[in-house]
Structures are given as C-alpha cells and as structure tokens.
Design brief:
Helix 1 runs antiparallel to helix 2 and helix 4 packs parallel to helix 5. This protein has 6 helices and 14 strands. It has 2 domains: about 140 residues, 2-Layer Sandwich (Fructose-1,6-Bisphosphatase, Chain A, domain 1); about 110 residues, D-Maltodextrin-Binding Protein, domain 2 (3-Layer(aba) Sandwich), CATH 3.40.190.80. The N and C termini lie far apart (about 40 Å). About 30% of the residues lie in helices and about 25% in strands. A 7-stranded mixed beta sheet has the order 3-4-5-6-7-8-9, sandwiched between helices. It has a 5-stranded mixed beta sheet with strand order 11-10-12-14-13, with helices on both faces.
C-alpha cells in the first residue's frame, strides 16, 4: 500500500509553497487567451513546471497529466492530474478565490485529491478508494478537520452553484439560491464542505475535476455525470485536452432526481 501520510504531506507542503509565490503575483499578471477561451499566465506556467518537478523528485515512478503541458494520459500505475491555477480569470483580476489542484489516480481513477485555496489558506483533501482494492485513511477534510456534505433539503435559504456556461438554468424557477464562484474545483468543494446543496459545471476538463471527484465522494456527496458516460478510469495514450465532462454534484443521492431536470439542458 502507498504511504498515504507521505502523499498528503507532499501535497500540502508543495501546494503551500507554490501558493505563497502565486500570492505575490496575484492580481498583477496579464492572461493570454488559449484556444479553448480560457486564460493562461506566466504564473500558471511557473506553477505547472514547479509542481511537475516536485512530483518527479518525490515520486519518480508516477506519471503526470497537466492542464498547461501534458494532456495525454500516461501508461503508469499512478498518475497525478494537476491544475496549477484553477480560476485564472479570478487570479488575474484580483478576486481572492482560486485554487491549486492535485488529484492522484491509481490505474486511471482518482483515489486521493488535494486542493489548496491560497487566498483563504484552506487545504481540502480526501481519500476515495472505490473498487481499487486499496486501503488506508478515509474521509474528507479541510485543514485537518472533517468535512461532510449537508443533509438539508432544497429551499430558498440553501445554495446551489452554477458555472459561467450554465446560467440558462436560471430561466426556470429554481429551489435554491444561486451562486457563481468562477472556480470549478471550489464550486464543487462547497458541496463537499456542506456549504451548498449542489453545483454544476457544463464543460470542465479532467484537471478541473480529478481531485474534487475524490474529495466530494469522500465527504458523502453524490457525483452525477450529466452525459451518463463514465469518467474514469482514464485510458493510457488518450488525449484529454479537449474532452469536457458535464457534471452535477449534489449533497445526497436522492437530490439527483431533483436537480437533473433543472440542469440537464446545459449538456450540448
């Protein structure tokens, strides 16, 4: 079995170090638009390289798939999927909500996720082994404290998160208050932490969801792929650079039937 303590310590130490440097440039860098319309900055590129180098040194047998460089899933038993700055638009505009995301996959499926939100000094992490046969620590945490999905029912005092590409759902009556955070991982993390009853992302990429996939389910939330296609395991040799994964995450499995009819139209 892997040394889970070493993995968690590495993830926390590395994201903290990278986050401190990113905070120095926060709100002071310009973004360049990529082919998919998202932004990239020199800070993203620096963070990406630094994270990849740290992984190569600490876990030389592990592969890496990253938003900014390698999009092809490697033929390795273990692989880190990294998003060096999730929420780059927020980052460039000085909005204090963005994250560093590390997901560790075993045989193509996430079993550990660590997401650090530097502006609020919040480390989220969780362990979700599924059918992998692995054992070890269980549960989801924020700064060492357990987090759990809410048991509340939809109401006007509960929150539901949208992404920028899912705002059409507001054309119909909605049973919760709407929020839009601009950070795919944190959008879904708020469900894991019990702050929101649900969240939807219309076109997230694999680096947006690999880490939070493990954390959300470890916290008791339910993950629902809106196109009904299984996300994992990833396939060695396949390019994941342009593949979207329309996703709904809700606090309880029974709420899937409540929210799917309200958000299904975002799938194109």
């Amino acid at each position: 079995m892997p040394d889970w303590n070493a993995i968690q310590t590495f993830a926390q130490t590395t994201t903290t170090t990278v986050g401190e440097q990113l905070l120095k440039d926060f709100g002071h860098v310009q973004g360049v638009e990529k082919d998919d319309g998202s932004l990239v900055t020199r800070s993203d590129q620096w963070a990406d390289e630094t994270l990849r180098q740290a992984i190569a040194q600490a876990f030389p047998e592990h592969g890496v798939l990253s938003e900014e460089t390698t999009h092809v899933f490697p033929d390795t038993e273990w692989c880190w999927v990294i998003d060096p700055v999730d929420g780059t638009t927020n980052y460039t505009r000085g909005i204090p909500l963005w994250a560093i995301s590390l997901g560790l996959l075993y045989k193509g499926t996430p079993v550990f996720g660590h997401i650090y939100v530097p502006p609020i000094r919040a480390h989220f992490y969780g362990y979700w082994y599924g059918n992998s046969g692995l054992t070890g620590p269980t549960g989801a945490f924020c700064n060492g404290e357990p987090i759990h999905a809410s048991t509340a029912e939809p109401s006007g005092n509960q929150l539901f998160n949208l992404c920028a590409r899912s705002t059409t759902v507001m054309q119909k009556p909605f049973p919760c208050k709407i929020r839009m955070l601009g950070v795919a991982s944190y959008n879904l993390l708020t469900v894991a932490a019990g702050a929101a009853l649900g969240g939807v992302e219309a076109t997230p990429k694999i680096w947006d969801i690999a880490a939070v996939w493990a954390i959300a389910q470890a916290a008791g939330a339910t993950w629902h792929a809106l196109n009904n296609d299984p996300i994992f395991p990833l396939v060695p040799g396949e390019d994941y650079g342009r593949k979207p994964y329309p996703t709904l995450v809700v606090n309880q499995e029974k709420q899937v039937d409540t929210f799917v009819p309200l958000v299904q139209e975002i799938v194109r």
